[in-house]
Amino acid sequence: MALIVQKYGGSSVGSAERIKHVARRVARWKRAGHQIVVVVSAMSGETNRLLALAREIQAHPDPRELDVMVSTGEQVTIALMSMALMDLGIKARSYTGSQVKIVTDNAYTRARIVSIDEENLRRDLREDHVVVVAGFQGIDAAGNITTLGRGGSDTTGVALAAALTADECQIYTDVDGVYTTDPRIVPEARRLNTITFEEMLEMASLGSRVLQIRSVEFAGKYRVKLRVLSSFEEEGEGTLITFEEDEKMEHATISGIAFNRDEAKITILGVPDRPGIAYQILGPIGDADIDVDMIVQNVGQDGLTDFSFTVHRSDYAKALEILKPVAAHIKAREVQGGDKIAKVSVVGVGMRSHAGIASTAFRTLAEEGINIQMISTSEIKISIVIDEKYMELAVRVLHKAFGLEQAA
Ligand code: ADP
Ligand code: ASP
Ligand code: MG
């Protein structure tokens, strides 16, 4: 007998039919003798619908009220899932985040889990119930409803698995595992049987939305056995996230290509090249709680340099506003910006021991006439900022250049 947490995403519970289908799957696991905790997302499209509704009322919705509203999506699904299980003769009980007591900090719309009181869930499991928990939500210490950021049900699943020391956390979605890149963009993408935790962390942080980054962080911290699988297929091992030190096998140099369109670029031209300038530019950005991702400063010439960085697109307008007076103050020539950019990243732990990965990537893009605007690297990834309109092309050609396609 094992204790298994199964998380089902929006498309897996997108209709009454889909919910019944998932309930049948859960019932099979239960009847095989396992203890099952089910975590569900809102039905597909529901979170977006609610967010749009809020924006019809308030241009910048109040974050506390937004969380009160958007958390209702998951509350609907837990009740429907419990009913579907009962209909199959399985004892089931639903819990909202606050009923479990998934305590978070107070950062509305992007709260972090602080603690989980798993006692009631354990009792229900002992009494032979399937426990159905709402993903994506919690409460802060003062009892306010909070949500965990888009895709946050993954994190609920992994955090519950950690709190319950579950044998496995299974993330069921609409693809049958983690692929070398998004199979919707590159049909030749290949499913990976395993991916190291480090690589998954990079892939998630660089835009592969198959797992929310915080869920991967949790899995790493608490050593949760994490697997991504399809709820639309009856068979399949999916993709197991592994820890490199456990691995005996030889790894491919590159495991995947990630991409995102979530960023915008800001360049300050003609900046006086003197100590403290980076701080003068980025200090006010940080003070406004805006995260900066890539930063590039040119070698100075004639006492002047150019300084570029990227921020999340939703912070772009605010960052530009903040920088105008800053640029005038430091006597920079001009502030430019653009939000029609994309970031494409090549990820692989094998990069550590292989030279020439960067040059292969640059040559591949050059051959397609794609101009590189910014580059940043770490031990296991190379990220390149390009014009948004070439993103899909860049992903396809890089995927091919690194030999990631399925064997014919
Ligand atoms: P869910 O609603 O189940 O949480 P998501 O839409 O959040 O599902 O995540 C699954 C989607 O992630 C897939 O449909 C796929 O388009 C996308 N995706 C992006 N990158 C990858 C990747 N490397 N491997 C698999 N899926 C990916
Ligand atoms: N329903 C939430 C979202 O759409 C959480 C999730 O699905 O993981 O982002
Ligand atoms: Mg998701």
Give the tags.
Carbamate kinase; binds aspartic acid; alpha/beta; globular; about 35% helix; VC0802-like; 20 strands; eight-stranded mixed sheet; binds adenosine-5'-diphosphate; binds magnesium ion; about 400 residues
Structure description:
This protein has two domains: 3-246, Carbamate kinase (3-Layer(aba) Sandwich); 257-401, 2-Layer Sandwich (VC0802-like). 35% of the residues lie in helices and 26% in strands. It is built from 13 helices and 20 strands. It has helices spanning 16-31, 46-57, 63-70, 72-87, 97-100, 119-126, 153-163, 197-205, 213-222, 277-287, 316-329, 357-367, 391-401; strands at 3-8, 35-40, 92-95, 102-104, 113-116, 130-134, 137-139, 145-147, 168-173, 194-196, 226-230, 239-242, 256-260, 263-272, 292-297, 304-312, 334-338, 341-347, 374-378, 381-387. Strands 3-6-2-1-9-11-12-10 form an eight-stranded mixed sheet, sandwiched between helices. Strands 13-18-20-19 form a four-stranded antiparallel sheet, with helices on both faces. The protein is globular and about 80 Å long. The mean pLDDT is 94. Bound molecules: adenosine-5'-diphosphate, aspartic acid and magnesium ion (MG). Residues 9-10, 41-42, 47, 73, 135-136, 150-154 line the site of aspartic acid.
